[in-house]
Write a structure and sequence with these properties.
This protein is α+β, with helices and mostly antiparallel strands. About 20% of the residues lie in helices and about 35% in strands.
Length: about 240
């Protein structure tokens, strides 16, 4: 599991980006199992890599909303020109940390968005975006399916990205980070969905940016990040042999 998480959080970004033009979208992902009510190191590493590819973006941590606030929830983020508005619709709402919360927790502050599995939620943007990331908690501990992100672009074409989290890991308090940047396309909405039943997930610290807020990573920089991924692979293998 350590190999998978390190390579996902660090190496996968490099694998997508090395060699000529940057592929689109670039996915950032890291996962930590049973970390308690705190974000794990792989999740944090993936988010740091994601934020390092952006400039001038903002973060939505739901701290300005009262517990029990239901959707639709209207939020805004700084864009390259003016602000980016976003309307969030779902069957969930804002929750506040209160132990034990069955594995869900705020990744900053005390508030987070809580959504039941089997009920998708959607972010609709007033200005098309090309970067999006979030922390998720308690995802995949017993629901037998992966979360799917459906991205609808400015031409109303929808594509799906599967969030490659663990399934049936047998414990609560999992944390993950998932995000993407896309230098060639922009999107008007994103829908989270998971067809499983019975579980409830936590989401927090949404980051959104437009295409002009994506910082191009040079090829030497991508190779350096890829080297870190290979280093993580080597460390993981040594630990498994120990």
């Amino acid at each position: 599991m350590m190999f998978r998480s390190i390579l996902s959080a660090i190496g996968m970004t490099a694998l997508i980006g090395i060699g000529g033009a940057q592929a689109a979208p670039v996915i950032f992902f890291g996962e930590d199992l049973a970390v308690g009510s705190t974000v794990g190191p792989n999740s944090n590493a993936a988010r740091a890599s994601f934020l390092g590819s952006l400039t001038g973006v903002g973060n939505q941590d739901f701290e300005s909303f009262a517990s029990g606030t239901g959707t639709p929830i209207n939020v805004s983020f700084p864009g390259s020109v003016g602000s980016i508005s976003a309307a969030l619709t779902s069957t969930g709402g804002v929750s506040v940390d209160s132990a034990p919360n069955a594995g869900r927790f705020a990744t900053s502050g005390t508030n987070y968005l809580e959504v039941a599995s089997g009920s998708a939620f959607t972010l609709t943007f007033g200005t098309a975006i090309s970067a999006f990331g979030f922390f998720g908690t308690d995802i995949g501990d017993f629901v037998p399916s992966n979360m799917v992100m459906t991205l609808t672009d400015i031409n109303s074409v929808s594509t799906q990205q599967i969030v490659g989290h663990s399934i049936g890991s047998g414990g609560n308090n999992n944390s993950l980070f998932w995000g993407f940047t896309d230098t060639t396309n922009s999107y008007t909405s994103i829908t989270f969905s998971n067809p499983g039943g019975g579980d409830i997930f936590g989401f927090d610290d949404f980051v959104i940016g437009d295409q002009q807020q994506i910082v191009a990573m040079t090829e030497p920089g991508m190779i350096a990040v890829f080297g870190l991924g290979l280093l993580g692979l080597g460390i993981a293998r040594r630990k498994r042999r120990a």
